[in-house]
Fold this protein.
Amino acid sequence: MLSRTAENLYWLARYVERAEYLARTIEATLRVTALPNTYIGQTNEWDSALLTAGVSASFYELYEEANETNVVEYLSFSTANPSSIRNCIEAARLNSRSVRTALTGEMWDTINSAWLELQSVWSGGAKTREQLANFLRFVQETSLRFDGSAYRTMLRNDAYWFSRLGLHLERADNTARILDVKYHLLLPEDEHVGGPLDYYQWTSILRSVSALTAYHWVYRETLKPWLIADLLILNDTLPRSLASCYGNLVRNLDQIGVSYGRQGAAQRHARGVRNRLEHSNMQDIFQHGLHEFIQEFIADNSRLGDIISKQYLI
Amino acid sequence: MAVAFDEMNGPQGELRPAYEELSRWLKETPPDALEHRRQEAELLFRRIGITFAVYGDSESTERLIPFDVIPRIISGKEWTLLEKGLKQRTRAINMFLKDIYHGREILRAGLIPDDLIFQNPVFRPEMNGQDVPHDVYVHIAGIDIVRTNPDEFFVLEDNARTPSGVSYMLENREIMMRLFPDLFARHRVAPVEKYPDELLSCLRSVAPRSASTEPTVALMTPGVYNSAYYEHSFLADKLGVELVEGRDLIVKNDEVFMRTTEGLKRVDVIYRRVDDDFLDPLTFRPDSALGVPGLMSAYMAGNVTLANAVGTGIADDKAIYSYMPEVVKFYLGEEPILKNVPTWRCREAGDLAYVLDHLSELVVKEVHGSGGYGMLIGPAATKATIEAFRDKLKREPEGFIAQPTLALSTCPTCTESGLAPRHVDLRPFVLTGSKSVSIVAGGLTRVALKEGSLVVNSSQGGGTKDTWILDE
């Protein structure tokens, strides 16, 4: 297929995934900030929301204070923030339009309808918390519908695999960023210095990757920070874990490699990252330093993006 | 201006046979049901994203072309005549182009003044002596037809460069079949859905000799901001070919390749929806970012076929238009089946004088204009507009032609005050391949939605209708 088409499909999936992630982050933050201070401590959760979205620096160029109004505006509706939800949907629509032929009717309809709704219903942003809740639900449903349409209607060929690559790469990045910002809350028992306040932080982390229920099913335990880290990093049954994302990335890259009859740097690099995740356990990771581990992962993941670009998309 | 001929209620107000069933159906159908369907159609268009951009509007503006749910019906007999005339005209156009870029017999015969060709900016000297596969220059022609009475069809304009609108012919039909299955069941309407297949085989038939037995076809678009982008993506999808932009293509050793995820892949036929000027910055406009450097040299080497060929503008130029009846006779030795609208060539002193004296009655068009821009409709214009136009005309008479204001036929159309007659034209699409000329029975009917308006262009508030050719 055309390199430009592959690139557009790849970014289309990334934008949709990012929009959903931002919506989840805002939702989880709203929830945790609604708690009385005695439950959550003095941290500014809106600041960490900006950090996990990776837009803290650009935010402070425009705003003085990271409070609910400003951060929600910046992450959801701002046109100044290139990766606000609004801009993600706009970009997804533009990408869809230029690869119309590679999308199924259902996928196009999802993105186009979302874009139309964004313009008609949400052009003025959300005026109340209720409206905001509706908006966030709308964004998540769009992503679910898009993902579901892709899964149910696309031919299983390179178009599908490139769009999946975008999805999993973005997802891995998002999960890793939460871990990067919140790693200090997830250290093992003997290093952990937090108190009961952290409990709500933990649920918030799990919520932002929609894994709160999953945690209980996997561990059948009360929340333990190191198990949360284990779930998000190493447990490949959780779709948003780093291990699961890399399992999928390796699989999709292999499918592309087989179909083209050629493997390359992208396949090797992805396999390397996956092998490291497969052969790690939380004890080693904690010993090596959780934060360092996460930061290396983020760098590796972004390197994979560059390699895929070079190998296929340019 | 005479009272317009209505295609449903003929000259004496009698119901014409092709419309009998429709008329019955309209009487049975309550007006709010029609309005309801109209809204449904609009919703469908918006959801599918059948939009176009209007130049001059901000980049992000996407508009719908208004769709009128009342079909325009043409009888099988009328169509047979039209079809013959369209094929004849398209054949003549292709022969004319071959002659202009080779022996120039028509110039030697003194039928067309030399300077009208050689001074014409759309004449491409690069094409002199250049052979194109099977002598086909215009693979896809969109010929605009109007009528003024039951028996006469006129060609208003030949579109031999990159005619658009065929996606509306196809989509309008799809939507009508969805909205009015009953109405279809009561008619025998010739299908249009074969058009993409016919287009593809037409394009494959003109592949260069150096192509493999399975030639690769691609559709080249200027990109998402082009006003006809929807059509480009729609057609690429229906044809099952890649939709490429200039940046997706690269020329190596006079062969054209597209950049794919598996490396470079050779392209044999390019259905290009990019104007000549923007095809290749090395040959034409150096500032064009839409084109492909070296594309012309690959074309000259015969390694890629461009459809339509380069330089076809010389055949649909409005100044050349007035010579079309002679062109048909000259090459085919036949009387033209479709008439030309009488045309005054403002470059000729006698004609100019007449035009200047009758501006308030005439339609004056720019020779190189399109899309209904830069046109004067005398009867509808204010004095000031006419005077401004008079100055323009005097300054550059060779830039204009004039025609009488035709009383274009009307068709019943949904308006705010119920059904009312509105002026229409018709653009059928003629395909010319290596072996044959073919036309899918149908076309794009454009309708001027404003009462009394004669301008059907979508950029000027025109709408479209589904066009039914009855299979009798």
Observations:
- Residues 17-122+142-191+317-340+406-469 of chain B form one domain.
- The radius of gyration of chain B is 22 Å.
